[in-house]
Amino acid sequence: MGDASDAGLPVKRRVGPDGIHLFDRRTGLNVLFDEVDVPETQWTRAPRQVSIALTNACDLACPFCYAPKAAAMLDADRLCAWADELNAEGCLGIGFGGGEPTLYRRLPQVCRHVAEHTSLAVTMTTHAHRFTPRLIDALAGAVNFVRVSVDGVGPIYEELRGRPFVELVQRLTWIGRAFRFGLNCVVNLRTLPDLDAVSDLAATTGAEELLLLPERPARGRPGSSPNVVAALHQWITDYRGPVALTLGAGDSGSLPIAQPLPSETGLRTYAHIDASGTLRRSSYHSTGEPVDERGVLAALERLQQKDVA
Ligand code: SF4
């Protein structure tokens, strides 16, 4: 279990049904002592990872966006308090998203608080177009991993994201000099033919990871068809590139994927807090529990009980 005394240390310890798990936020190294049988009463209470939508605001208009469009933004002091609580309860990392997290004015201050007062890894999902040398300086050392949304190259990228591809490549070069980073790719009929080019882009820019995200149904769009998902799985099977591939939970189908912590499931693994402060099982779930003055863990327990009832 994590505790307040480990604040600021890079290596985090977490215990659960799979054993004792050590995590180093600087390198992303995970070590699991699975021969240790830990009684359930000692299991870590917090989810392993929590994503937080800082704001619903975004300056792009991607056709497949499922982020809520109602104006909402989290208070920075609440965010810091939640990070402290999650850290003390054994969470390993928080991922800031949105909307677009770089539109959140106090992003550098919140990231620095987490870096200096907790052992949580900070990740961020961004379209990257607001990464300037100044913002990079403000975030350097306070963000452990940056996930950049890239669903195609050249004209397909520009059609979907509405920004010059050459500017994206410039931002990736800057980001790669300051942070470990990966690419997130929404896969649908339009982007599927660009997967080779996106994986080449990941390799040439120094990305460590390519996260493949079959498009989810949202706002009248049906999401990726079974044929697209089957073609994606075939592409993954044939892939021989140097960049590690990852898939979102529930997207692996019959693919043989590594499951290092098979017994840690559901809310033990992951939870999402939206920009209005509601804790949900994921950003795709429409219902949840508000995080009030009792904190994140109290909301988590209410959500668990609600699901049991
Ligand atoms: S960049 Fe992300 S949040 Fe913004 S419109 Fe596109 S998908 Fe939505």
UniProtKB/TrEMBL annotation:
Protein name in UniProt: Radical SAM protein
CDD domains in UniProt: Radical_SAM
Keywords attached to this entry: Iron, Iron-sulfur, Metal-binding, S-adenosyl-L-methionine
Record has Iron as a keyword: yes
Annotated Radical SAM core domain residues: 44-252
InterPro entries: Aldolase_TIM, Radical_SAM_PqqE_MftC-like, rSAM, rSAM_sf
Keyword flag Iron-sulfur: yes
